[in-house]
Amino acid sequence: MSLVQLRYNFRVYPTPGQQTELAKAFGCARVVFNDGLRVRQEAREQGLPYVSDAELSKRVITEAKATRSRAWLGEVSSVVLQQALADLNMAYRNFFASITGKRKGRKVAPPRLRSRKDNRQAIRFTKNSRFKVLDNGRLRLPKIGDVAVRWSRTLPSEPSSVAIIRDVAGRYFASFVVQTVEDEALPPVDSEIGIDLGLTHFAVMSDGTKVTAPKFLRRAARKLKRLQQDLSRKQHGSNNRKKAVVKVARAHARVADTRRDWQHKLSTAIIRDNQAVYVEDLCVVGLGRTRLAKSVHDAGWASFTGMLEYKAARYGRTFARVDRFFPSTRMCSDCGRINDKMAPDVRAWDCPCGSHHDRDVNAAKNIKAAGQADFNDRGAQVRPGLVPAPCREAVTHPDAACSTRSVEGISVL
Question: For residues 333 and 365, is the Cβ–Cβ distance under 8 A?
Answer without folding.
Answer: yes
